[in-house]
Amino acid sequence: MADAPIVAFDKTLLVRDACLCLHMQRAARVLARRFDEALRPVGLTNEQFSLLMSLQRPEPPTMGDVASLLGADRTTLTGALKKLERRGLAKVSVDREDRRVRRIALTAKGRTCLAAAFPMWDEAHRALEAELARINPVKLRRDLRSVASMR
């Protein structure tokens, strides 16, 4: 092992201080924990809330539409949906016109859960917006959307 290449410690510090990905991940984890805590009384995580909210549409969206909105791959989405299906909050069905397409719908139980969760999310979100007022949350959202749209 003595011949193994070594990354100099100054490079470690560079990544710690400059890596956009690391800083985004850290910020995302902090925010996710905050919203997980806020949504705990209804038994949802922030990820589950976002997924349920993405289903709140006039017509059930396709798996592809939801994956795109959430920035998730289909495998990750399928795993998250299975948990919601087991709880009776969402239902995946075959599209009537194209059997290759899967559509996801909120169930009545899912709509009830989402209605209970929304005020909790709203309160947590308002508190966060107030904390972030000094850094301009509108600009932050715009910048994050720009990052999310990168390919």
Automatic annotation (TrEMBL):
UniProt cross-references to SMART domains, sorted A to Z: HTH_MARR
Q: Name one GO molecular function term.
A: DNA-binding transcription factor activity
Check the record and name the Pfam families matching this protein. Answer: MarR (PF01047)
InterPro entries referenced in this protein's UniProt entry, alphabetically: HTH_MarR-typ (IPR000835), MarR/SlyA-like (IPR039422), WH-like_DNA-bd_sf (IPR036388), WH_DNA-bd_sf (IPR036390)
* SUPFAM superfamilies referenced in this protein's UniProt entry, alphabetically: Winged helix' DNA-binding domain
Picking any one GO biological process from the record gives: response to stress
Which residue range or ranges hold the HTH marR-type domain?
17-149
Q: What is the official name of this protein in its record?
A: MarR family transcriptional regulator
